[in-house]
Amino acid sequence: MSKRLWLLSLLLPCALPTLARAAHLVPCSAITDGAVTLYAGDTAIQAAFTPNFDFSLPGAAAACGFVGFDWQQIITTLPDPSPFRQGDGTRLTSASTPFFDPAPGGYTYCFVLSGYSCDSYPFYWNPNTTNTPWSLNEYEDGNTLFFYDSPADSCLPGGRGVGCLGLTAPAGSFLGFTTQLVGILPDGSAYPLPDFWTWTDTFNGTSGGISTTANFLPVDAGSGTGGITITSETGVDVSTPEPSSVALVCLGACLVFARLRVARRKALVQCL
User: Of 78, 100, 187, 236, which is most buried with the most CB atoms under 10 A?
Assistant: First the structure.
């Protein structure tokens, strides 16, 4: 092999991602599939989407025919009694499931928690606002999109029944969720992508002194017991994540909270 060909063989693998992006040779599935890192702590669940092939978020969206990326979350299980009300005051019950989280019209607790509406339907973060606790742009950092949630339902078994007149759900009750990465289409609708996970939550305390589902703040320390369990990832039962994955997502969460600019979001996130 000539010296020129030998040098080309060394450089070509490094140049392929750039060449592929320039020539639009990478299919959307190769850019997005398997690009989500997920971790659940005791009472908080976090995820990070970083497109493959070194695509930026805007570049990946353009290659896929989207205007951006977001998350969709669906509450699949909600036990009675429930402390949660839509923005118009309608109480959500077990009969309401499944429904998007945040619910259409948002929740009444969002104003209490942050002073802003969380009406981001059908998305988790709101792509139509900026610089609020629920705005999509607050959770985009460089080439990565972040997800965070820390539900707190005081009406779950063993809780104080805040928002439920002191009543609690039967033993064994839990909140059930499905969360998925989605593309935002030009018409504003969501295009589901393959990466999703299912999870449950039994935390019976509070966050900011109230019960929450979609939530950008940590739970109130010492306010309850129970926690989060991831039950599947893209349809497959999950095992304990690799320490490197845990560190990556924890670091991502720190970056997210460092960038939050609303005064009431003074959350302390500890990453070991």
Answer: 78
Torsion 27-33-34-40 (CA) sign: positive
Name, in order, each residue with C-beta under 8 angstroms of 65's C-beta and a sequence gap of 6 or more: 28, 183, 185, 186
> What is the Cα–Cα distance from 29 to 60, expressed in whole angstroms?
10
Instruction: Give the largest CA-CA distance in the chain.
Output: 81
Instruction: Choose among 26, 25, 24, 32: nearest CA to 193.
Output: 32
Please determine, for residue 14, whether its predicted confidence score (pLDDT) is greater than 70: no
**Contact between residue 193 and residue 209 where contact means Cβ atoms under 8 Å apart:** no
Q: Tokens in use for 197?
A: 């996970």
170 neighbors 79 (Cβ within 8 angstroms) = yes
From residue 51, how far is each of 46, 180, 241 by CA, in Å? 17, 15, 20
- Amino acid letter for position 89: G
State the CB neighbour count (10 A cutoff) for residue 168: 19
